[in-house]
């Protein structure tokens, strides 16, 4: 039995780590499309094609349920996939909704009309593709009214993290926060809309100030997945996991992943 976790690169390992801690008895298969990372600078059709190929590979590995632990894929491809591509016996879920539910303090499956919420000014930090999709704003509008969202495209951050250049990543984060503050001087909350960004959460928090609540996705997705599998235990596929697949160089990706998670990770070719 296994659940698939997909990301364009290594950022989804932050989600994998959280769900493994929350669901230690559920095996997972992780797929990193490192050969084509980052997705954040690609157009929607390209992201869709790459994402569907990756999801099919995870289905082949026995994962009937796949989590898109990639905000760009969730923003640019998920709705299209769910509407016209995913077969009835499979499920593909994204990472936006658990975060928005936490922000708006709504329970999973609460389909009541959108209402006013406590937070009025929200900063969204995400990849250029996620920002241009406006998927976050669309999902938020289903649940809340009167929320001002200012989005900041954080070019270069994912590349720096993937290359292990954390000094450059920190400099870029601080520059992007400064740019956001010029547009929204006093955000009340900040959304880290990329699964790479939790690796820089302390830098985001320091740059934004302690009065800004920073929402990161990994633990929220883990809780949402645990709830989903309690209600749909049949969606744990027949894969044997755990496993790590990559379209990149397995040796190089394994080394970088081991640094990220601080435990031995061994990828094989997808």
Automatic annotation (TrEMBL):
Gene Ontology molecular-function annotations: glutamate racemase activity
Enzyme superclass (EC): isomerase
Similarity field: Belongs to the aspartate/glutamate racemases family.
Known EC number: 5.1.1.3
Gene Ontology annotations of biological process type: cell wall organization; peptidoglycan biosynthetic process; regulation of cell shape
Active-site residues, as the UniProt record annotates them: 70 (proton donor/acceptor), 194 (proton donor/acceptor)
Binding site for substrate: 7-8, 39-40, 71-72, 195-196
Superkingdom, natural source: Bacteria
Pfam families: Asp_Glu_race
The protein's name in its UniProt record: Glutamate racemase
Name of the coding gene: murI
Catalysed reaction, written as an equation: L-glutamate = D-glutamate
């Amino acid at each position: 039995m296994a659940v698939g976790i997909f990301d364009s690169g290594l950022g989804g390992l932050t989600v994998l780590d959280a769900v493994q801690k929350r669901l230690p008895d559920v095996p997972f298969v992780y797929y990193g499309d490192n050969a084509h990372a980052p997705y954040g600078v690609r157009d929607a059709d390209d992201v869709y094609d790459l994402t569907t190929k990756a999801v099919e590979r995870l289905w082949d590995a026995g994962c009937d349920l796949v989590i898109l632990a990639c905000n760009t894929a969730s923003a640019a491809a998920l709705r299209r996939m769910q509407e016209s591509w995913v077969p009835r016996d499979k499920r593909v879920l994204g990472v936006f909704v658990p975060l928005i539910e936490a922000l708006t303090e709504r329970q999973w499956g609460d389909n009541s009309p959108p209402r006013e919420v406590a937070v009025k000014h929200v900063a969204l930090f995400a990849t250029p593709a996620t920002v241009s999709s406006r998927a976050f704003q669309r999902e938020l509008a289903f649940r809340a009214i009167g929320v001002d969202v200012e989005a900041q495209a954080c070019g270069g951050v994912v590349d720096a993290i993937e290359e292990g250049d954390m000094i450059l990543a920190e400099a870029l984060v601080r520059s992007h926060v400064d740019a956001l503050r010029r547009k929204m001087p006093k955000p009340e909350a900040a959304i880290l809309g990329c699964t790479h960004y939790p690796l820089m959460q302390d830098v985001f928090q320091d740059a934004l100030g302690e009065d800004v609540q920073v929402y990161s996705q990994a633990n929220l997705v883990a809780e949402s997945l645990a709830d989903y599998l309690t209600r749909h235990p049949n969606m744990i596929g027949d894969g044997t996991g755990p496993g790590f697949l990559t379209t990149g160089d397995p040796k190089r990706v394994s080394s970088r992943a081991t640094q990220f998670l601080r435990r031995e990770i061994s990828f094989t070719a997808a």
